[in-house]
Each structure stands twice: as structure tokens, then as C-alpha cells.
Amino acid sequence: MLTKRQVLYSGSRRAPGAASSVPRAAGSDVDSAPAAGASPAPPPSRAFGRRSKGLLVFLGGVGCALLIGWAYLSFEPRATPLTQEQIDAAVLHTLENKTLPARAAKAAEMVRPTVVRVNSFAEPAAGKGTAAGKGTPKEGAKRPPRKFDPGASGKSGKPGEQPEGTSGLEQVSLGTGVVIVDDGTILTNLHVVYGAKRLTVTFFDGTEAEADLVSVHPENDLAVIKAQKIPDDLPAATLGSASRLKPGDEVVAVGFPFGMGPSVSFGVISGLNREFRSPEGERLLTRLIQFDAAANFGNSGGPLVTMQGDVVGIVTAIMNPTESGTFIGIGFAVTIAAAGRAVGMHPF
After folding, report:
1. CATH code for the domain of 261
2. How many structural domains comprise the chain?
3. pTM (two decimals)
């Protein structure tokens, strides 16, 4: 009787987890095959996604932000250009509902901190009550003698009290000056300081100081004085050229007429390159600015100012055929160009 032999297969099943006794050839796939019962390895793309999840979320957020920004800029409503009618209506509404400052007021405000009052004191003439007017250049008309007037000096104190250092002296002249250098250098008229033994100046903030005579320039009726004491942050005036002036241009004159001030008067340029000779015939002034802003005794040496706040002249004379010496509509100013040449400095 034949015995049935058992068939052996090369792929016969092995016990789970048993190690294979068959040696593995180098480079074979056997190692990559998962063990029985183990989860299959994820595909490479899914593994990359798990490792770079945070980076992908960040890049997605950036992309969304860029997309939203592009959409906002693309669909932002465009501003509609204003028509001329709308602009005119807006300007008219502003003019009707808002009071704008006068141009003359703005010009005067710009120059006011540079304007000073100039007082001249001298010894009384022997046997006379005053020395004012004796040998003193005039403003184009005779003026009455003027003694010290505490009410017009601008100095606070007891009635009749004179400024310090003027005891035994009397006030012989009153005028105006303008600060041209912030160290206290002041430009005024020669006839304001002529014959004075002592000078005082009063600044915009009330500071009063003695002043020294630096130089005189009779050909232009100008003088330069310098204060011994000045206020903090003293400004200097902005000087301008008269070459750009035309008859009809608006100007203001700032000064101390009859000791009151600083006072502001408004007018226009009446003419250019005028000549004026004082009634006494002592000197001929040339290349003057003629203006009609009110000027009187005390305005001499003060600034003539444009609407831009530039000082273009120094008020020096008025014309009046009568003996009253008051303003009748014709005033003269020395140009700043002439003043600059006279005092040895560039005017602009």
C-alpha cells in the first residue's frame, strides 16, 4: 500500500511574528513589506502635509489677506473731482460765515514787536524854557516846544516822574525807531536824536532802557542807536525792497504820534522817487516814498510796512504849507535800500 506524501510549498504559511530563517538578499523588498497585523505606511504626500501643517496654515492666511487687500483697492470708490461751481460755493460760504482779519491788522501785528519809542533829553537853553526847536531839523513844519510829558512817555510811576538818569534835563524830541538787529540796534531819524544829551527807548513789552548814538547820516536824515538793555527774544524787523512797490500798493505806518502808541495808520503808496526839502532849506532828501497813511509829530523814524509785513521805508517827513505841522495827506519815507547803504549794512 502506497503511503501518500505531503506536498510542501515554498510559500507555506509561517507562524505570525516568527522570524524567517531564509536569508534575505541585499536590495530585496522584503524589509519594506509590513509585518502581519501592522498598519500600512501613509503615502509620502500625506506625510509631508502632517509635517508642514503650520507652514501651510500661515501661507494660506497670507494669501487670504493679499486677496482681501486687492479686492478693497480694486473696488474702492473713486473721489469725484470738484466742479468750479462747488469751489465757488465753498469760498462764498466761508466769507459769509467767518470774519477774516484785515490785511493791515496782520501787517501791523507782524512788525509791532520791533517798534520802539525814542525819547531825547537835553539841558534847557539858558534863559529859555526849552531848547527844542533851536537848531533842530524839522519834519517839514515848525513844531511847538515840547517839555517832558509823563503822561505820554509810556513809563509807569508817579505823576511828573522822569526816566532815571534824566534829572535836570527836559525832553526835547519824541519819535519812533525800528529794531533792525536783534542785539538792540535801532534805526530812527536824525532829527529825532539831534542835539540829545541822553536817549531812552521803550520796547513793545514796556522795557525801558538808555540808548547810545552809534552813527548819524544827515544825507538821509537817519541815525543808528543801540539800547543798553533789551528784552528777551527781541525780534528784528524784516526789511524789504521798495523796487517792487507801485503807486496804489497798500501800506501801514506804525509809530507814536504825539506820544500815543504804538498807533497804526493805513494808506497807499502815492508816488516814488520823490524829493523833499525842509522849510528851513537845510537839506534836500531824494528818492523818497510818498504815502498817504496818517503821520504826525512822533511818527518820525517809524516803519512804513507792506501788507506782507516787510519794512520798506522809514517815515521821515510830512508836507504842510501851513504853520500847524499836522498831516494833510502827504508823507515821505526814506527807502530801506538807502537806509541800508547809510548804516553800512545790506538791507535785505
Report:
1. 2.40.10.120
2. 1
3. 0.65
